[in-house]
Design goal:
By secondary structure, this protein is mainly alpha-helical. The chain contains ten helices and no strands.
């Protein structure tokens, strides 16, 4: 796997040279070449994300997955060569510190979940995994966001004795995090960023877009890993 990752990174560096080039200023041959490398770069980024999703979950692996998701978004929407090269350099550093031990299966280690929401959360988690295993990646992403909403609603209630379901029905993940912050409830390092990424993928999956968005297997897998990681951080024993 390590050799495959190194090869993908090397190919990606070649592709980045063509990032951000405006096709209107190129001849037809060069336009075709630039498009080829752009598509190849997207493919290599997803390959890297697939490799990361196949590794045992550690802080370094999670950081690499997080960085890859952000880089895929940057590469697709606003390809800046300098910024992309910085991210690839950071990815190389992370991969140098990863133990390439593939995980044996896709299992979750869950924290003690409050009894009042345990049945609902476990049901949604089971369905999320079933959707993923069945190749229904968009459904898996949507369920991951629902799981987070349930957990954050409960966390807010336990900290403030106020029920957001009654006072702010339909509140989204982003606003929910802001509400927690207003009451001095900090979720911990990196959690806000993880929730933001999950919410962004969820919004792209649910709401009408100019282009149909279908999360890849790698994107759905990373989203699920982030969701379970956040649950463990929210409900872990003190």
């Amino acid at each position: 796997m390590k050799n495959s990752i190194e090869n993908s990174l090397a190919e990606l560096k070649k592709c980045i040279k063509y990032a951000g080039i405006k096709s209107g200023s190129l001849h037809d041959f060069n336009k075709t070449k630039a498009q080829y490398y752009h598509n190849l770069g997207k493919s290599k980024l997803n390959e890297l994300l697939g490799h990361v999703n196949g590794l045992e979950k550690t802080d370094t692996v999670l950081e690499a997955a997080n960085l890859l998701l952000e880089t895929i978004d940057l590469y697709s929407n606003n390809p800046d060569q300098e910024e992309l090269n910085k991210r690839i350099e950071r990815l190389e550093q992370l991969f140098d510190n990863i133990d390439f031990k593939e995980k044996q299966n896709f299992k979750f280690e869950l924290p003690p979940i409050p009894a009042v929401i345990k049945s609902e959360l476990l049901s949604d988690i089971k369905e999320m995994q079933l959707c993923f295993d069945s190749g229904c990646y968009k459904a898996a992403v949507i369920l991951s966001a629902k799981i987070l909403e349930t957990a954050l609603h409960r966390m807010y209630y336990e900290k403030t004795s106020k029920d957001l379901m009654e006072t702010s029905p339909g509140i989204g993940l982003g606003k929910m995090v802001a509400k927690l912050s207003e009451h001095g409830i900090e979720l911990g390092p990196g959690i806000n960023e993880q929730i933001h990424l999950i919410n962004k993928v969820r919004i792209s999956s649910v709401h009408k877009q100019s282009k149909v968005f279908n999360p890849s297997k790698e994107q759905a897998h990373a989203t699920i890993l982030f969701t379970i990681d956040i649950l463990n951080k929210i409900f872990k024993k003190d």
